[in-house]
Amino acid sequence: MASTVIKASLNCNTIDTTGSIQFTYEEEVNGAMPFLDTLMKNEQDGSITFTVYRKPTHTDQYLHFKSHHPLHQKLGVVRPLLDRCKTVVTKDEDKIAEVQHIEKSTWCMWVPSIVHQEGQRPDECH
């Protein structure tokens, strides 16, 4: 099966003669496989669940709320992150973990309490 996938991937890479587009493939590791910004997991019962996937090099750096950008752009940073959590993540416990991750990373960007509940900023903020 893997050799068929490799052959198909190599065949697709011959379509673009400029070499500017390279097709790659991912193999399932420990029952999970990243696809775009999602991580697909095969559960024990045979179902598939989805969570948000971030590459290991992802830094959680977003537009700082005290920057001189229009308010709609600053609010537009957090809203899509929360929307992605609501639409992509399938399990409730994963949704809670994702919202906590979003809160922690955006606290560091001084997003005001209109987005977060009152509380202390995490010590991990730079």
Write up this protein.
With 126 residues, this protein is an alpha+beta fold. Helices cover 37% and strands 11% of the residues. The chain has a 3-stranded antiparallel β-sheet with strand order 1-2-3. A hairpin with a 2-residue loop joins strand 1 and strand 2. The longest helix is centred in the middle third of the chain and has 18 residues, at 71-88. The relative contact order is 0.10.
List key phrases describing it.
disordered C terminus, 11% strand, alpha+beta, single chain, disordered N terminus, 126 residues
How big is the Rg?
19 Å
Neighbour order of strands in the largest sheet = 1-2-3
Query: Percent of residues in beta strands?
Result: 5-15%
Overall form: flat
How much is the average pLDDT? Answer: 78
Assembly classification: single chain
Number of strands: 3
Query: What is the end-to-end distance?
Result: 46 Å
Low-pLDDT runs of 5+ residues are 1-9, 117-126
- Judged by helices, strands and strand pairing, the structural class is alpha+beta
Binned, the helix content reads: 25-40%
- What characterizes the major β-sheet? 3 strands, antiparallel
Order of helices and strands: HEEEHH
**Individual helix count:** 3
